[in-house]
Amino acid sequence: MRWVCLLFPRLALEGALRRRPDPEAPFALIDGPVQRQCIRAANRAARERGVRPGQALGFAEALCNAPLFKAPDAAPLSKAPNSAPDRGSRSGSSQRLETAPFDAESVERWRRRLATWAYGFSAQVSLHYPHALVFEVASSLDLLGPWPRLEARLRGELGELGFSHRLVIAPNPAAARVLVNVHDGLAVDENGLESALATLRLDRAGLAGIDSDRDIVQTLNRSGFQRLGELFALPRSALARRFGGGLMRHLGELRGEWPLALDYHRPTPRFSRTFEFDQPVHAIAGLAFPLKRLLQELSVFLVGQDAGVERFRLQFGLEGGSVQHVGIGLLAVQRDPDTLLELARAHLERVRLEGPVLSLTLFAPRLSDYAPTRRELLEGPARQAQAWAALHQRLVARLGESALRPLVEHREHRPEMAVLNGAGPRARDASAGPSRPGWLVPAPQRCDGDVVQLLAGPERIESGWWDGGDIRRDYYLAQWVDGRHAWVWCEPGRQGWYLHGWFG
């Protein structure tokens, strides 16, 4: 078996930053009692201003509020010694440090969401280890490609989601978890497992939780042991007598000799996420950023479920406690976040907010089977069909289903009754039959002097005796006076031509 371990060292901070309108602004997570709050984690903008974990909140805020000064660049040799420095060489600016309380429950929610994403690569995904995911991929390598390709895909998707990580693949989950503490990108098999484990320091080998009554790492260090390889070299019976069975079990798990019982994650069949605003939002444009984030999470969820959606719902929590709902229907099953965002924004252009928005919730209560777009060796006609389907879907999203309807063929010989307005956005394939014009005039028009030449015909249509609309006509393909092709008819045995439609 091949087990991947993903360690997320900054999950709490990066999960909070995904909900920030400006992730590049100075931001930090705080922890501790109200009287002694301190910095738990800080983003890059805050760290560049000197904010560090463990600092008191007041001191960190003072660092961010203080103006930054940039030393003037050295004056060029041609400039006089007493000349003034260039404008802009010294600048002062300050930016307020934004903070949010550290939320352990939020970290676990993000871990479950990432586990749902990993479910798209493996059916055996476990949250057994804190701050990490482990999942088995040996059965997926035949489908997803060799390990280097799968590793690049994992890192690429996590990078798009905005989560920093460390990654290791090993023969068992326990070994993968301890190796990821000191390695990133390590791939080890059964033959190299023990040598990779032997170099680990004891404080990095997951020994801290073995014995709750004593610090097993400190005990081993006092006995002269520093690395796992030194423990592997000792007789197992002597090691068990001196340090107990818990240590032996852990060493057996690392070597793959002791099976590790894991609880596997199973994603829920429904999707629901909420984004809460710090300030009320008064315009649809202000919903673009949170909507993009929520649809990215929906896409990750759908990939893990190998599914898509045909319909989802947005719920706006308004001031005063009222709620506004917007349903978004699609013409085909989708799960691409960019496509979902484009269609959702087109729907929202026709929506008027009933009040200031305090929260945005996305519901996808029903999932649909997803089939990737079929690719042909020669993609000319197929690509055109896909382009039309995408345009059709955008028009329905922007104008509404009632504004865009197809023409549906009806089994009727009379041309003016053979094509009806469709009841929805989907049209049936027309059955094979005689050539018909794409544009019928509202009512036949007399056109005796405009027909230059008859190109094809006649085609006799005689029908409608049962409903009082009896017709008896001979139809021809005719060339019009200006060169266009027209569909004309005359009554058998009578003079006079009537225009009924145009060919493209």
Structure, described:
This protein has helices at residues 11-17, 44-48, 57-65, 104-118, 141-144, 147-161, 173-179, 190-198, 216-222, 228-232, 236-243, 245-255, 288-305, 337-348, 380-399; strands at 3-7, 27-31, 38-42, 98-101, 125-126, 132-136, 166-170, 186-187, 271-281, 307-318, 323-334, 357-364, 368-369, 407-409, 419-421, 439-446, 451-463, 471-480, 485-490, 498-502. It has 504 residues and is α+β, with helices and mostly antiparallel strands. A five-stranded mixed β-sheet has the order 5-6-1-7-8. Strand 5 and strand 6 (132-136) form a beta hairpin.
Summarize the structure.
This protein is α+β, with helices and mostly antiparallel strands and about 500 residues long.
Key features of this structure:
504 residues, alpha+beta, 5-stranded mixed sheet, 5-stranded antiparallel sheet, elongated
Low-confidence stretches: 69-93, 381-385, 422-431
Q: Any idea what the shape is?
A: elongated
Major β-sheet strand ordering = 5-6-1-7-8
What is the straight-line distance between the termini? 63 Å
Largest sheet: 5 strands, mixed
Put simply, the count of helices is 15
Please state roughly what percent of the residues sit in beta strands, choosing from under 5%, 5-15%, 15-25%, 25-35%, 35-45% or over 45%.
Answer: 25-35%
- Derived structural class: alpha+beta
Rg value: 35 Å
Q: How helical, in percent, are the residues?
A: 25-40%
What's the mean pLDDT score? 81
Q: Tell me how many strands there are.
A: 20
